[in-house]
Amino acid sequence: MNMSQEKGTETLKRQNSTPQDSAQGLFAGYKGGEEMPLGGYAALVGIYNAAFAAMLLAAKNSGRQLPKRINYADLLLFGVGTFKLSRIISHDRVTSPLRAPFTEYVEPAGTSEVKEKVRGTGMQRAVGDLLTCPYCMGPWVAAALIAGFIFKPRATRLAVGVLTAATMSDFLHHAYGAVKKID
To answer: Where does 25-113 show beta strands of DSSP type E?
Structure first.
């Protein structure tokens, strides 16, 4: 085959390729050593951003003013509350029914927590990755709590205060357990 025929064949291949072929080629080298459900991850990012934009639009349409800043006390309260709720969603024994369609139970993982393995492919796996990762859940939880803060600040502060108190309690229980082992 001469150079002119090769160029013609290549042009024909490009003309007959689908957008999916182009996307697969674009992401073909990104596997990370295991299957990475990039399409599912992209969908989750889209859902997150659409929900956040909808929340901002709802706030604007309701006439609510976004806070000019979040004071340090609220930032600390919401940070600790986000930490706790992210852990509850991603690892707590009693929230395992929420994760069960996307995970497989492996073993206990410390006080009232479980270790799970993500299962499935595509969107099922992407949601499983999200639900089992407290770091990944953090932005989702923080955004939900901030949305609550915008629309119902007193009730949200109360709920986040409960989560913060539970986090402090957890740390005290662990400290007490550590001291008790020393004796």
So the answer is: 103-108
> How crowded is residue 29: how many other Cβ atoms within 10 Å of its Cβ?
6
Provide the residue ranges of all domains of the chain, joining segments of one domain with +: 36-174
Per-position DSSP letters for 129-160, written without gaps between them: HHHT-HHHHHHHHHHHHHHHHHH-HHHHHHHH
**Three-class SS of residue 10?**
helix
For residue 169, the one-letter residue type is S
Cα angle value 40/113/82 (rounded, 5°):
65
Query: Given this model, what pLDDT does residue 43 score?
Result: 96
Question: Is pTM beyond 0.85 here?
Answer: no
Lowest mean pLDDT, pick from 13-17, 138-142, 154-158 = 13-17
Token pair, residue 118, equals 């993500």
Q: How many angstroms separate the most distant Cα atoms in the chain?
A: 84
Report whether 161 contacts 77 (CB < 8 A). yes
